[in-house]
Design a protein that fits this description.
alpha/beta, Nucleotidyltransferase, domain 5
């Protein structure tokens, strides 16, 4: 079985959505009250535990850094992102990085959609209510991975503008063999 994990890295709540061993979809939100490097290391270690516990994965799809973000803590957010990338390299899982605008466009049809529109669209398409915006983004990333691998995903049939978000996205070279 080809298994996919979507990762929405966040300093306050990192969301993970993945193919569980029983054929279902698992989700988890990693949280910590720590600050600084201690926070980043705890989130990395928790992600490591989840990847090992739920692995092996064929691909991990992670949201790329939001360079235009105005929420502050750019160094810490970037640090967490690189710690997670290092983790995925360490466990030898191919990684696909999806820019935030492509994530939004895949979910809504427009790359400038606000967070509440992404949540609304994903909730409508999946019929699920989510406890965390971070899980919603991780769900979209998970669906992107499954879509690119030609596998069914919870968002169902998507209109052309949604699919166009992935026109220039390429699978990691480790996954290109045997994929249409």
């Amino acid at each position: 079985m080809t298994r996919v994990m979507g990762v929405d890295p966040s300093l306050t709540a990192t969301g993970l959505v993945y193919d569980s061993g029983g054929g279902g979809i698992g989700e988890v939100v990693l949280k910590t009250r720590l600050r600084g490097i201690s926070r980043m290391r705890q989130l990395r270690d928790a992600a490591h535990s989840e990847v090992l516990h739920n692995g092996p994965m064929a691909v991990i799809v992670i949201e790329g850094p939001a360079f235009a973000s105005s929420t502050g803590q750019a160094h810490e957010r970037g640090g967490l992102w690189w710690l997670l990338m290092d983790l995925f390299f360490e466990v030898r899982v191919p990684v696909l990085v999806i820019p935030p605008t492509n994530l939004k466009k895949f979910a809504t049809g427009t790359g400038t959609a606000k967070k509440d529109r992404v949540v609304s669209e994903v909730t409508h398409r999946t019929g699920r209510v989510f406890d965390s915006n971070d899980v919603v983004d991780a769900m979209v990333l998970y669906c992107i991975g499954r879509f690119l691998l030609g596998l069914p995903h919870p968002l169902g049939e998507l209109p052309g503008p949604h699919r166009a978000a992935l026109d220039k996205i390429e699978l990691p070279k480790e996954l290109k063999h045997g994929v249409k």
